[in-house]
Amino acid sequence: MECSTTWINSTTVNEIDVRNSGAFTTLPVRVSKYNEIAITAAQKLACIWDTIRYGGVSSRPVNVGRNLLPWVVPEALPDRMATAVKLIELGHLCDAFSEQLDSQSRAEVYNMLTRCMDRCSVASASSCSCPSACNKEFDDRQAQLRTLIYEVATEAIQFDREQGILILELLGKAVAPEPMSFGCRKSSAFRHRTFWPILEFAIGMKLTEMDRIVLRDIKTVVDEYHMLNDEYWGANITTTASYQTDFCRMPNLPFQGKEGLKSRIMDLEFRYRSLQADIYAKYPVESMRLRRWIEAAGMAMAGYNYWRALSSSGPCNSSSSACSCSPSEWTRVTTPASTMSFSSSPHTSYSGTYERSESTTLTAVTNYISSMPPSPSVQILNMAPSALNTWTRAPPPAVKCISSLITSLQNATTTLTDITADNTHRYNQPTAHAVFGTMQATNSAYYTFIQSVSEARALANPALATDILLNGFNRLYAGHSRELNWKYNACIPSEAEYLSVVDDTTGSLYTLLVNLLQAESCIPFHCKPDLTPLATLLARFVHVKEDYLSFHNRDTQLSKSTDARVLSYPVIRLANIKPDSRAQISRYLFEGSKEATKSGGGCSCAAEEKRDPCGNSVNYSCLVLLLREYGALAATRDLLRDIEDKIEKEVVQVEKMTGEVSPMMRRLIAGLREGLLP
């Protein structure tokens, strides 16, 4: 399945839920839509395992509600999900069983498991043409275990023979007896060895040797990230989830305190982002094909941090249950993969990421927006409350409420922006109004604004919070009004006018955030720093950065929308540098957009290339050439550097005034630079 990154099989985990769990990842966390399939597969395998171990059904609870795979590989293909889960769980169950035995018993079990996992034994459940060592009689327990392994391996090999055999061999090596191994944790070796093959199997992607060389550094970062997470969360492992043990414990890792480990873990996330940007820039052609693997690696990092946080907080009660498989069911582990069907699901999905049953009609639109992968700008906005609260010191419940409120407003404004800009897609997925209709999308967006007022009234100072919110709405709508006026009159504004509107639209969300945090702060008024200038600069940067990257990285953008026909800073800069091009640019931006709308989103050829009265061609390629030739893109990058310098100075000034250094703000600033060339 070779395609650009598309979030088809997973949904975004709410940022507030992630933070409440204790996780601290700065990467977006996603979970598979098919989590129930994973839970069922793991539970059945655990039941069958108990049947083999105890000779009957065990009454112990099977805690599989927090199964690892849906969090670490959320984009696993639905038809491979159950098989991948069983491959992982089989290794964990074997290891956990062996760890409970003494050295002599463990050696015997290892020998038994090695024979059961022999390639020849798996090749046929009933017969084998290999030497007599393979044909020896298995006792009942060995025969049952071999049959279980055979069924799981057969499923994997049906999908991908090469990967299935590789994973099985790695599983055998992980439990095979080795000198001095009986005091070691072999489960970590299993997961460390098999994680990447299982990830590639689950997402249905094969890498060449050259691909592995290109991706080697990212793989190293992810492996170290998992190891450090095991060190950080290791003290909180619960016995109820002991069969799901850690990836690999880094040997001789010096103790630096949990905060030191946390800092190293977060540094690895930024290292991953840097390597990701480097690969996209250095290998533009290959990266289009490898993007799914690269994004899957990032999701594995974020998902593992979140999963460890959930696991450390205690067992998942909602999904724990006693084993309910009958003894006769142990030979019927699963439905064969070839007959597995999801057509009976009662839910109707949109673009593979949203299900109608997840929410009511009023909130369906904003929930659909939330299910999309967060853009870099949204990620920065999600980080901002924690970063700014270093200086505002609002209580945690208030920060949680304000973060939720700002996220809802961001979703609503995104919906309205897509409508006014005539966008049909956002990150390769249909926009909200393309799915739900323009009227329903608009209605839901306005409903979100009304609901935000109700949320503001739940804060400690409801009157002040409501006033702040209404003032922010005034700015937001005033800014949108000016944008609509430019579009209606086919007018290209000046750079100063454009930045002023950015301050009123994107800037209103950031200033709302700052003002609400300040209103909830317990710091005396005269001691509160003025964070509005910093909020305005952050908003300008993220908005202009999106404008810049929409042209600079056009060939590798995830978005296939009509963003090229939206007013942006590089285009306005070009119009001011080259005044004689204003008519052509205006015709391309405004008339092309109108005709595309009238055509109902059909063939875009006519809208893509226009000629002015003098016969000059007007198209996207020409526009990009002009932007580069006349230095408009370079000027935009210079503006971003200037704003970045101002942000740094503003942060230093606030830190001096308050005496508080904000590491989270420093990480946020590093995130601003992501994707930008020096």
UniProtKB/TrEMBL annotation:
Presence of the UniProt keyword Ubl conjugation in the record: no
Any one Pfam family match given in the protein's UniProt record, by short name: polyprenyl_synt
Stretches the record annotates as Disordered: 337-356
Metabolic or biological pathway, per its Swiss-Prot or TrEMBL entry: Secondary metabolite biosynthesis
One Gene Ontology biological process: isoprenoid biosynthetic process
Key words of the record: Isoprene biosynthesis, Magnesium, Metal-binding, Transferase
Keyword Nuclease among UniProt keywords: no
Biased composition (Low complexity): 337-353
Gene Ontology molecular function terms on file: metal ion binding; prenyltransferase activity
Coiled coil: none
Protein name: Terpenoid synthase
Organism: Aspergillus piperis CBS 112811
